[in-house]
Amino acid sequence: MLEVVTDVFDLNRTAVVVDVGAASATRKFFHHREQAQYLTVDLYKESDIRSSITDIDLGEGTADVVMCCHVLEHIIEDQRGIAELHRILKPKGLAILMVPQKAGLAQTQRIPDVTLDGFGHVWDYGDDFPNRVEEVGFVLLSSRAIEGRDPIHVFQKKSDCA
């Protein structure tokens, strides 16, 4: 994910970066970036903001960038989580999202009989994942598949959305 962050975001500008379910490598990377106010969000791990992706304790329009890697597939109300990322982003802010996408699956499917929100996958994401995110008020800027890994999608919050 860091490859995409460094490509799409000017790391020399001051910014609020919110990382939902932050990985240790990302935490280390941003620890040395004084320009960024880097905030981690997680319900289960030690973080700056201990909350669910569906109810982040930040004001509307706070973040310049949100990152969310391999979290949404664990959330029963994933659309609510995407809407929450949209809410905390500034207009034209960037959302960098990564979920496991099943090869050859056209439409996202709910995995039956999984009920523990946050533990185990509740979604098999298909090729329609970008469309699901756009429904909330984002525009897809790019998708990049890095060999052997799930695609990383970069979205921008529409400027006409508050």
Short précis:
The chain has 162 residues and is of the alpha/beta class. The chain has four helices and eight strands, in the order αβαββαβββαββ.
What does this structure look like?
The protein has 162 residues and is an alpha/beta fold. It has one domain (2-157): Rossmann fold (3-Layer(aba) Sandwich), CATH 3.40.50.150. 20% of the residues lie in helices and 28% in strands. The protein has helices spanning 2-8, 24-31, 78-88, 129-134, and strands spanning 15-20, 36-41, 63-69, 89-98, 109-110, 123-124, 138-144, 152-157. The longest helix has 11 residues, at 78-88. It is globular, with a radius of gyration of 15 Å.
Key traits:
162 residues; alpha/beta; Rossmann fold; 6-stranded mixed sheet; two-stranded antiparallel sheet; 4 helices; 20% helix; 28% strand; globular
